[in-house]
Give the backbone structure.
Amino acid sequence: MPASRPATPTDLLNANLRRDPAAPLITFYDDVSGERTELSATTLANWVAKTANLLQEEFDVGPGSTVGLALPVHWQTAAVLLGVWSCGAAVWETAAEDDDRLTDADVVLADADRLPALEELGLDELLGLSLHPLGMGMTGYTGPARDFALEVRGHGDVFSPWQPVDPAGVGLVLGGGQLSLSALVETATELAGRLGMTAGDRVLVDQQAATEAGPVAWLLAPLAAGASLVLCRAAAPSGLLRRAETERVTATLGLKLDGIRELGRPA
């Protein structure tokens, strides 16, 4: 990471790119759709760059902007989070019951299932995500939101911010508080150390634990530690141990699996 300035989340991704660009970085399962998607650092960085270019070129997102997210834990959500932070902008995540707070965001990215409720708020800038396993667009949708999957494809694989990213700028809005971009990295690094997450770890976390822990824990802490992530949505508890064995998981976050280290728990 550059020594001349505090790190940002983009620096964490770049460090993983330098360390091992082709190794699996995020492996995502959805036990409802049967999806298994695996992204290397290179593939994730490509999605991040395209997302950042889309936000910057189409919505003028940059330092001082706020991007609302109404998305579940997902590999595409990881790309969106890192894309927003690449622009130097702030992320504002909300649960469905707090959607009305998103009216203050400059642009909102939402799961297609949440679009009808968000449309009633009269949001000017709204992007919908199908969360399709192959990154395809929304089917059967006729509302005013733009389709993230269709829009993002036409944008470049390399991102350069129009304005210098300030590590002291707001990166995440949490209720009444906030964290700067550099504080996100500092918090993630401290958390990874406190949990005992190390380079080379392969960390299994399910959707519920990841949602409760937040993106600093499920996304940034593994990046800070040099670990990879096995992220499970709608996970069937009975199959998690088998999956952990198949994916060569070395640690879990917020889960107890026999014979596998639980991060943050005494050995």
Notes: The chain has one domain: 9-262. The two ends are 31 Å apart (CA to CA).
